[in-house]
Amino acid sequence: MINNGIRQFRLGSDILLAGCEYMGQFMFGPLALTVAPRASGRRAVITIPGFSGNDEAVAPLNDALSNLGYIAESWGLGINSGVPGRHKFEQQINDIAKRASRLAESTDARVSLVGHSLAACSPARSAAAIRGSSTGW
């Protein structure tokens, strides 16, 4: 019985927090854009969604980056399922690195990788995968 009450409380608090976060983007989003750094020169960004997120989850971030002058794209690999197993993780890292290389070549821009939440480890691993590459992204 107590366990059920805790679950209901947790669900209620999660809904409240999600609502606050959603409203916060409208109240503070424009302010954040005034203090965020603008792109200097040609810069491109690939955003990587957090665990269980997809391209739509980082769409608001891509829009904000585009408004700041960046060429912003999502990773294009669908839902970030956490990739169980080393082989799948390495394949995902290689796919991100290839996408970054293609974006650098097609836009003639330096490319940054931005990972959201749990995906924050992916950019560093992707960059390491092609360290020394002639594309220089």
Please tally the helical runs, counting DSSP H or I stretches of 4 or more residues. 4
Strand order in the largest sheet:
2-1-3
Rg from Cα? 18 Å
Structural class: mainly alpha
Task: Give the SSE order as H and E letters.
Answer: HEHEHEH
The CA-CA distance between the termini, in Å, is: 56 Å
Return residue spans where pLDDT drops below 50 for at least 5 consecutive residues: 132-137
- How many beta strands in the DSSP annotation? 3
As a percent range, the share of helical residues equals 40-55%
| Biggest beta sheet summary | 3 strands, parallel
Number of domain units: 2
Secondary-structure blueprint:
Layout: H1 2-35, E1 43-48, H2 59-67, E2 71-74, H3 86-107, E3 110-115, H4 121-129
Parallel strand pairs: 1-2, 1-3
